[in-house]
Amino acid sequence: MNHEFMQALDELEKDRGIDKDILIDTIEQALLTAYKKNFGSAQNVRVEFDREKGDIRVFSQRVVVDETDLYDTFLEIELADAREISPNYELGDIIENEVTPKDFGRIAAQTAKQVVVQRIREAEREIVYNEFIEKENEIVTGEVARVNKNIVHVNLGRIEAVMTQSEQIPGENYKAGQKIKVYILEVKKTNKGPQIVVSRSHPGLVKRLFEFEVPEIFEGIVQIKSVAREAGSRTKMAVKSIDDKIDPIGACVGPKGSRVKNIVDELGDEKIDIIKHSDDPSEFISAALSPSKVVKVEVDEEEKSALVIVPDYQLSLAIGKEGQNARLAAKLTNWKIDIKSESQAIEE
């Protein structure tokens, strides 16, 4: 080791945020292992790294014991022998002698380099993990790196994220070099470094897009209470205003529909129904079945289920194609919804 090596450690601490003391402790442990491996010592040893000069020294350690307790002369020394070295030694004290091998410097330098390289790699992984764990459940813009077996790899700058088939918008095509907005679904640590899973199909993507697009939502005046989504097809979103002067639906739609249009364009023409949230279950369920008209809603609070009566000519609209409208309304309100026409209700 030399002065340049110590300067390099200072630079690592400054530029990469790697704690110098922790790094030196790690190097000392690695050097201890290297010493025992290369010199096969049965002694109990301690490796000392001079934090100023970078010098490496190895010390054997022996515990001062009573002569009747002496078992291993490599690890222990009698009290009488210890006091020949210094009269101040007492039972239980540790005596150290330097045993640094002449050619240990080369091994030490190689070992320290390996430790530093490994620690830099770990530190970089930790930095990337910390950066993206803070962005979990947020939107970022990435670039499609490649598509392999229905898995899209998205370059986020420092790292590549993966978007599995279930997190893609059905029917959406992805090409290398394409810029896309993705929702960070999960950030986890693995042995190979951070792994990031992103999504284009998650309801959170719609919510975050509206937060970016609608100032009233960003400021907290208009609140998104719930979102139900079938990606690539349709989304229902319930909103509420804490200011009576602000129309929550109008704020989300924007002047001439500009705000919602930007989001629809981003999602590939996915239909978005924006409804007004209500604390009254009947009102909320009725609104959730928009654009269908509702005649009557009968709620069962205990079962959290509702019977909804609609005009005969509105039944198919209320249920929706392949049951989508009713399904999304149930997800949005978190109520079980049974829809019947007026004729069916009268018959029953």
Keywords, separated by commas or semicolons:
single chain, 348 residues, alpha+beta, N Utilization Substance Protein A, Chain:P, domain 4, OB fold (Dihydrolipoamide Acetyltransferase, E2P), GMP Synthetase, Chain A, domain 3, 4 domains, five-stranded antiparallel sheet, four-stranded mixed sheet, 29% strand, elongated, RNA-binding, transcription termination, KH_NusA_2nd, transcription regulation
Radius of gyration: 34 Å
Following the backbone from N to C, one meets helices and strands in this order, namely HHEEEHEHEEEEEHHEEHHEHEEHHEH
Number of strands: 15
Helical proportion, percent range? 25-40%
Number of helices: 12
The name of the CATH superfamily of the largest domain reads NusA, N-terminal domain
Please explain how this structure is put together.
By secondary structure, this protein is of the alpha+beta class. The protein has four domains: 126 residues, N Utilization Substance Protein A, Chain:P, domain 4 (2-Layer Sandwich), CATH 3.30.1480; 57 residues, Beta Barrel (OB fold (Dihydrolipoamide Acetyltransferase, E2P)), CATH 2.40.50.140; 76 residues, GMP Synthetase, Chain A, domain 3 (2-Layer Sandwich); 66 residues, GMP Synthetase, Chain A, domain 3 (2-Layer Sandwich), CATH 3.30.300.20. It is built from twelve helices and 15 strands. The strands form four sheets. A five-stranded antiparallel β-sheet has the order 7-6-5-8-9. α2 crosses α4.
